Amino acid sequence: MRILVTGGAGFIGSNFVHRTLSTRPDTQVVVLDAMTYAANPENLAGLDPQRCRLVEGDVCDVELVDELMAEADLVVHFAAESHNDNSLHNPLAFTRSNVEGTVVLINAATRHDVRFHHISTDEVFGDLALDDPARFTPDTPYNPSSPYSASKAASDHFVRAFVRSHGLRATISNCSNNYGPRQHPEKFIPRQILNLLAGEEPRVYGTGENVRDWIHVDDHNDAVWTIIEKGEIGQTYLIGADGEHDNLAVVAELNRVFGREPGAFLHVTDRPGHDRRYAIDASSTLALGWEPRHRDFRAGLRETVEWYRGNPGWWERAREATESAYRRREVQLPK
Ligand code: NAD
Ligand code: TYD
Predict the structure, then answer these.
(1) Which residue out of 33, 58, 81, 122 is catalytically annotated?
(2) HEC profile for the chain?
(3) What is the pLDDT of residues 211-241, one digit of tens each?
(4) Architecture of the domain spanning 2-178+215-239
(5) Does residue 148 have an active-site annotation?
(6) 33 C-alpha to ligand 1 centroid (Å)
(7) Is the overall model pTM greater than 0.70, yes or no?
(8) For 99-131, how does the pLDDT look when each residue is reduced to its tens digit (9 = 90+)?
């Protein structure tokens, strides 16, 4: 099977490529990645060149996408601008890569009749109140709150429209927050781990009561394969692993891993429009036979800390650039 993986040099995409090549001997992968600030060439280092090729290019490049599509049996579309904070400052990069890029890809997938899996996020549903017992289901109305989630919502709508109007053979998955190795230092968990490794304080936005539904990246990618193999064309599947924790609890646990007081951190400027809580009802994907394996979030966090501790060459430059941008914007708040 020849698989075109867009965004395969980023966090989730590169974990998908590694997992796919190691568990599915009948696969060959072409990664199409624009190698933005979020990508790292190290993410694909050491892979068999007979089975994995990196094409540095943009998903908005119609000719290149057409050429690669002609040689693919399956597309797994991860490529996106993925950070909420950046979307507040540079929204047009998000409409371009996330909306236009998706439309270029599904246009070509339709033309070549290639099976397409679209990677989306639970953030398209907006947020839930902290005391709301509800969780997101595939029937939850879309209500995105940030330019990032709005662009992902738009891309989902385009995929559905192409299924209905053009017979595109596509499935969509909306997953909750991922953690694990090779996540960019701009994201919450790596940022706090790297602060702690540098002997600095974790930095929590606003009150820190915001809840995210954490899932290990390998569980996400296993669910994606289950949907590709067993999902129904045109359907949307929600992926989550019952991993709800507020940001204060995550920071407390990381502090414990570093032998520090759980409550030792800085409150900094809140994110405008900061979503309160995400929570996934994953019944749609569980019904296909998938199950998360990484059920112990504390153990997963400890392993993730060890990965960052063992790979400073991977993150040092990215951290420096990210952290200096953050610190220009952030103001410390009183506790
Ligand atoms: P990431 O930022 O680590 O990686 C994105 C990759 O896409 C990068 O390698 C980047 O270079 C590439 N890219 C960006 N624009 C491109 C373009 N125009 N053409 C080609 N390549 C381009 O992001 P991630 O966290 O791995 O997220 C991957 C996907 O999963 C995204 O679609 C995101 O919306 C979705 N998702 C992420 C999470 C999460 O917790 N990180 C949760 C649910 C869904
Ligand atoms: P993030 O990793 O940006 O993911 P998302 O916005 O997609 O959920 O942030 C996760 C949570 O952590 C979110 O509530 C914002 C918060 N956060 C902090 O408190 N401090 C930080 O330094 C960052 C980057 C995020």
Answers:
(1) 122
(2) CEEEEECCCCHHHHHHHHHHHHHCCCCEEEEEECCCCCCCHHHHCCCCCCCEEEEECCCCCHHHHHHHHCCCCEEEECCCCCCHHHHHHCHHHHHHHHHHHHHHHHHHHHHHCCEEEEEEEHHHHCCECCCCCCCECCCCCCCCCCHHHHHHHHHHHHHHHHHHHHCCCEEEEEECCEECCCCCCCCHHHHHHHHHHCCCCCEEECCCCCEEECEEHHHHHHHHHHHHHHCCCCCEEEECCCCEEEHHHHHHHHHHHCCCCCCCCEEECCCCCCCCECCECCHHHHCCCCCCCCCCHHHHHHHHHHHHHHCHHHHHHHHHHHHHHHHHHCCEECC
(3) 999 999 999 999 999 999 999 999 999 999 9
(4) 3-Layer(aba) Sandwich (3.40)
(5) yes
(6) 10
(7) yes
(8) 999 999 999 999 999 999 999 999 999 999 999
- Taking the C-alpha atoms of residue 111 and residue 108, their distance in angstroms, rounded to an integer, is 5
Please tell me the residue having the least CA distance from ligand 2 atom 3.
Answer: 187
Task: Kindly give the number of the ligand 1 atom that is closest to the alpha carbon of 43.
Answer: 9
For residue 334, what pLDDT is reported?
Answer: 83
Question: Per the structure block, which two tokens stand in for 7?
Answer: 């965004």
Kindly report, residue by residue over 14-58, the tens digit of the pLDDT: 999 999 999 999 999 999 999 999 999 999 999 999 999 999 999
The domain segmentation of the chain, as residue ranges, is 2-178+215-239
